[in-house]
Design goal:
- The protein has 180 residues and is of the alpha+beta class.
- 33% of the residues lie in helices and 15% in strands.
- Helix 5 packs across helix 6.
- It binds zinc ion (ZN).
- The site of zinc ion has 4 residues, from strand 3.
């Protein structure tokens, strides 16, 4: 029996909690026969039956800009170092670790306007912990001004994620300790 990876279940649950009345018509996770025939999709269950992709209907039953805001929250969560997220596609754009999660033009046949797609890495197979979508830690530092708000280079994502294990406060003491 195919099953959605735990990270996918968790993310969908968080979105459902925030938008209980959202439209689910374009939701999906496990590939249909057409997808399977094409052969390459994270919607296709692997040998163990795990599906590492989730489609969420773009109609959240809220202001349309909310959808962009939600996708942006997921993108930032990934950029901050949640490596369970592999890539996101929405409205003709793909976001992935390439170019540090910058929005790039998506050249696939389906521009993904009725739904957005999230692919997960194998790290999300059994890891269903909470996605820190509201974190925006670096944004807050920027708003607070001062030199603490310096951009973290995208190649130091691993420093950031390891620092997050040891240090939950809003400063970057954890990352400087791990660099020292
Ligand atoms: Zn999809």
């Amino acid at each position: 029996m195919p099953k959605l990876c735990k990270a996918g279940k968790q993310l969908r649950e968080q979105i459902d909690d925030d938008y209980p009345d959202r439209d689910r018509k374009s939701d999906g996770w496990v590939a249909d026969a057409r997808h399977v025939a094409k052969g390459t999709s994270d919607h296709i269950p692997d040998a163990r039956g795990i599906v590492r992709a989730l489609d969420i209907d773009a109609n959240l039953n809220a202001h349309p800009e909310e959808t962009y805001a939600l996708v942006e929250k997921i993108r930032k969560c990934a950029k901050r170092g949640d490596k369970r997220i592999k890539y996101i596609i929405y409205d003709g754009k793909i976001m992935s670790p390439i170019l540090g999660w910058k929005r790039r033009k998506y050249k696939g046949a389906n521009p993904h306007r009725s739904h957005f797609h999230i692919s997960f890495t194998t790290l999300g197979d059994n890891d269903g912990k909470w996605f820190d979508l509201e974190g925006d830690r670096d944004e807050r530092l920027k708003e607070d001004g001062g030199k603490l708000g310096k951009d973290i280079p995208s190649n130091s994502v691993s420093d950031l994620s390891s620092s997050r294990l040891g240090c939950r406060c809003d400063c970057k003491c954890g990352s400087s300790i791990s660099l020292a």
